[in-house]
Amino acid sequence: MTAPTQGPGRARIDARTLRTDRWWLPPLLTFLGLTTFVIYGVIRAFMNKWYWVGEYQYLAPFYSPCLSEVCVPGSAHWGRWFPDLGFLVTPPLFVLPFVLGFRLTCYYYRKAYYRSFWLSPPACAVAEPHRRYTGERRFPLILQNAHRYFFYTAIPVAAVLTYDVVIAFHGADGGFGVGLGTLVLLANVILIWAYTLSCHSCRHIVGGRLAHFSRHPVRYWMWTRISWLNARHMPLAWLSLFSVGFADLYVTLVASGALADPRLFN
């Protein structure tokens, strides 16, 4: 096997790596973090309950938008587009492909799961176990090139989550009110927008193919802001992943009666 430490023009080193630090720790933590989220997501996707708190208008992010006839009363803000297709086709499955498509094709997440799940490579200057590397030129990895188009679908999803936050400013008497759940959903949507807009494709769409920024001051201003976010794409990817899972879990606990939502007023 030709490994990074045994490439042409280099001294032949039989050791897998000469690194003495804990190079295995980041891919291990990434593996555990992503696996935990996947397990939780699968459970919630097929649970099909405890996603709507009618008293305070809280809708769990995993079930937003709820577009099926099985959606509980009050939770289908955008209509019931799909019939009841049984317990194997729950409301999240109608939106999940677009959300997963955006996350799975993300440039940062590619690096994360390539290293942690496929060990391709597990870390810099560490030989990988694969004998061949074909890049992203063949199925299924060639689908990674669709990231820009998944970005277009991520925008309306973030907009729907924003609407969910607006209606979550709902008091027990039907007026204006704020609870801990409102703030949890608000923090989640802020991080979702930050992660979405920090996308590399978004940066290219805003400022790409411009020969002279001076002729396009508005796009240049937008490009500088997106570039600032783009430099923080990795932490935003993790923070938004954690926030959507935490917000969904919080609504689940409130909807199930396991947790009372503390009210700041009304």
From TrEMBL:
Q: What parts of the sequence cross the membrane? A: 23-43, 85-109, 149-169, 175-195, 236-260
Give the superkingdom in one word. Bacteria
Ordered alphabetically, the record's keywords are:
Membrane, Transmembrane, Transmembrane helix
The answer to whether the entry has keyword Membrane is yes
Q: What is this protein called?
A: Uncharacterized protein
Organism of origin: Streptoalloteichus hindustanus
